[in-house]
Design goal:
Number of helices: 11
Number of strands: 0
Distance between the termini: 42 Å
Order of helices and strands: HHHHHHHHHHH
Structural class: mainly alpha
Radius of gyration: 23 Å
């Protein structure tokens, strides 16, 4: 009886979470403009979406921004995690970890407003006319993407045997070569997972992008927000459906990488015990 009740409750929770998404996907294939009555199945609104030049440009801008922010955040986050792992003072390490968590726990609207004020102040200080542009959005996205990379790479370093880099150097490797041959492969799953999470968060962000964006550079979330001010059409449903499945694919990749890494760690533990 308990198992039946738990299954029913679980099913109800999943229905509550995914029913709106299922309705959205369903009506994205509606041939008519009605948002409540389904007429005939059609790819009409997907074709309309592909003809929308402004939306496609916003998609391109979002991909460029997300890829740039992910690249910078991955490099900086990996270096930061490597440095944090080598801190000897537990108190100092605790302080650094707390500071790292602030961009994740701080409300997005507070982060967006504070970054906007900082960029405007710096722009006026240096006599710039256009203080908000692609560069400010890139800095803002790197700021909130960094913690995700650090928190994915740091546990991989902590799980690594501390003697491995020293053993590699004893066998003739330089410190840099030991890093490439020993430490980097251990960090690689965390780097991949962190970069995918950073890309997803950057692609999905609206609030911080809204406050730090300038004229002439519109991301996809901002474009969707501007579309909601007018009459909502199933074209936006089609766009949301595509975003959902792209995000779902990235999450499946992350879970696959983490599961593979867990299996490898279990095999290593069994081999060490045997």
């Amino acid at each position: 009886m308990r198992k039946i009740i738990s299954n029913i409750l679980t099913a109800m929770v999943y229905i509550f979470l995914f029913a709106p998404i299922a309705v959205l996907v369903f009506f994205s294939f509606n041939d008519s403009k009605s948002l409540s009555v389904f007429s005939d199945p059609s790819f009409r609104w997907y074709r309309e979406l592909l003809r929308d030049r402004n939306t496609l440009e916003a998609v391109r801008n979002s991909l460029i921004l997300a890829a740039s922010a992910t690249g910078v955040a991955t490099v900086m986050g990996t270096g930061a995690a490597w440095g944090i792992d080598r801190l000897r003072s537990r108190w100092y390490r605790s302080v650094i970890n707390t500071v790292t968590d602030i961009p994740m726990t701080n409300p997005d609207i507070i982060t967006g407003i504070s970054l906007m004020l900082m960029f405007v102040f710096a722009g006026r200080l240096f006599g710039m006319r256009n203080t908000l542009n692609f560069g400010t959005m890139l800095i803002a996205h790197v700021t909130f993407c960094l913690p995700y990379v650090i928190l994915q790479v740091l546990p991989k370093l902590q799980q690594m045997d501390r003697a491995l880099p020293e053993a590699a150097m004893d066998l003739g490797c330089t410190p840099f070569r030991a890093f490439l041959k020993v430490e980097l492969p251990e960090m690689l799953p965390g780097i991949i997972t962190g970069s995918i999470m950073a890309f997803t968060m950057s692609l999905d962000d609206f609030v911080i992008s809204y406050f730090t964006s300038g004229t002439g550079f519109e991301t996809l979330p901002i474009r969707i927000y501007s579309m909601t001010k007018k009459t909502v059409t199933p074209k936006m449903y089609a766009l949301a459906t595509i975003i959902f499945f792209v995000t779902l694919s990235l999450l499946l990749v992350i879970n696959h990488i983490e599961n593979s890494q867990d299996k490898e760690n279990q095999k290593k533990e069994k081999q060490a015990i045997n």
